[in-house]
Amino acid sequence: MTEPTASAAPAEVSDEEIFEQKAVRLAKRERLIAERADAAGGAYPVSVPVTDTIPALRERYADLEAGAETGVTASVAGRVVFSRNTGKLCFASLQAGDGSRIQAMVSLAAVGDESLAAWKELVDLGDHVSVTGEVISSRRGELSIMVSDWAIASKAVLPLPNLYSELSEETRVRSRFLDLIARDRARETVVARAKVNASLRQTFAGHGFLEVETPMLQVQHGGASARPFITHSNAFDADLYLRIAPELFLKRAVVGGIDRVFEINRNFRNEGADSTHSPEFAMLEAYQAYSDYNGIADLTQELIQNAAIAVAGTTTVTWADGTVYDLGGQWDRISMYESLSAASGRTITPETSLDELAAFAAEVGVDEPPHPTHGKYVEELWEHFVKVDLTRPTFVMDFPVDTSPLVREHRSIAGVVEKWDLYVRGFELATGYSELVDPVIQRERFVEQAKLAARGDVEAMRIDEEFLRALEHGMPPTGGMGMGIDRLLMAITGLGIRETILFPLVK
User: Is 438 annotated as a binding residue?
Assistant: First the structure.
């Protein structure tokens, strides 16, 4: 048996149809309760026989010839995603969680009149059923179970969407469970994410890093320039912040002697949402003592390339739209100031005044940033002139000091810090520092941030006395990095951020 080709019918079922089908299915549920000997336990059995999984059978009998019989009896369970009833023989496709399918053949000769009639009357698309019977190949070469016994494991009271038409983006995002049932790509993205996380951990382990967990509820937010979410603890009668970054706690771990440390964590930033930003997102942060921003850039490139290989088998990945993108080789490293000067035709250095930058921005149509500083203007101008033309993965090096309060000043260039941003696919994927470990300078930077906060900059950092006290006990020279896991999936798969997050936040 072959399944029907894609239908032109709409993927979503109308509200009226849903209401009618739900009523019919609920009546079938009542019948199941009435007919079950152990109905006190509900409409469905606590367990059903399962001796094999659908993907395992498909692998084991991949070369079974059309019409062949195995003499092997197996019990499998799956969701009914196709059904055709034809007199004395019924066909159904059962789908496993990974999307693999096997055909169930329910015949009058094998199950008898009563069982065949019950199948026709009770089984609907979307139901989970268990079937037991001989593993065979149909005359058309479809791997099948010739059913001798069956049971409904769970009834779908609501109908599935049409699995042979595209789900709307709204349905895919809001009802991800339907997306996972209907689309191979949705399931593959979940698998890809798991492979990425496993690869990251494996690469870190190979370099002697330890994975830790840091607080998500914090008495003071820090580690990034971002607007936090605020909540309240009844037990402590205190306002708390959902973390915007784990940085300041991970650095405490380095102070304590965990020289190579990382965390894959959830962060929360009370900011806008678009194709590359989500208020809740997953981030990787890592710190390596006795390294710097060059060493941590090397490690970041290795992490990403290994993750691509784990998902795609190669560093040359194919995105969802068919674009082939090369993540291999050695990635370019460019200077922010030099690349801006070259692209704009105007020499811009750390000594360029705020007034000059403001005038130039107005001249080229770049909006004044909120709470303008030299660094904010430089970064806005760089995005205007340079970012749009970046194609290959590129480390953009050496940022203005006033936008990077946690970063060590450059060892040889005045007015900049040893920071890079990694751009892939035109968006920022990761950032890395030579970490600022001097508590005296760090306090001065925090004071400058506090002044910005006092002037209304909601993204400015506050003075964190506990973190400063940790630094005062001595932190070794360290390289650190942060990378969005959701964005890493975007770089490998070509999907938008709402596709890479299993259950994204939506209105």
Answer: no
